[in-house]
Input
Amino acid sequence: MAQSKFTDLAILSLPLRNKFRQIQTREIAIFKGERWSEFSPFVEYGDQESAQWLKAALAWANDPLPALKRTSIPVNATLPAVSPESVQAVLSSFGVFSTVKVKVAEKGSTVEEDIQRLRKVRELYPEAKIRLDANGAFDVETALDLIGKLSDFNLEYFEQPVATIPELTQLRQKLADAGIALKIAADESIRKVSDPLVVAREGAADIAVIKVQPLGGIRNALHIAQASGLEIVVSSALESSIGVAHGLHLAGALDELHYDCGLATAALLEADVTDNPLLPIDGQIEIRSVEPNEELIEKYSAAPDRRDWWLQRIDRCWSLLES
Output
């Protein structure tokens, strides 16, 4: 079986401080090669997509890493779809920050609730840059409506407001026609398509959000970032600090880095795999390796049925990589 090839393989269920992407716990697998690595596609992802995450985890564990151009990375805070009353408590976990990404279009929420959350952020943090992320959940007209209602916010950019590349292109054209200078970032339209460079070729976005695991590894992610010609934001996929370390190294290897990166997401976890997590200090996170704590591994080990599910998943993904 594939998992017999992994050293110190552990399946963990880490609690979150607040519900995020409709989940309250984050299930991950960690293992050791030359360095500790993480395999953590979300549980709803199919095997073909998840195999890319396994490829990335294996590469991080064993392959040489690209040279660094910097030793720490500026990061943004991330605000889940919480009530206005919870905004300050959630964002306090990030310490000092100059940028906050606000989740909108969460299942079960309304545009008006999104606006109330955003207005609370602006009230509490009047100097912060605000960027939005809809995870592709809006249609073009709803996205335009929200943007219009936030005309006084001077938004930094809007990440994946709509689902498809043609919709992104249409939205950008409508914004240009209306004289609205708002940058559009692509995330799912890069990591969930067969050719991650289509977004750039079609002129569908200004910014590429790059994540190591979904793109098959740090070197492939670095190539996509460079080949796209777009401005780059490196982000995490709600990983533990081991997974966040992958993204930090990628951000550190880029020639240019003009935006705060979405790599402070360990602050969204109630528990991590290490007693020295990758959390921001004065808006920056140092690029460094992470060693898990055995007591934390034992404490947050997944239930037997979930462990079996993950082990079977690893076997299937391994088979896809070998085929």
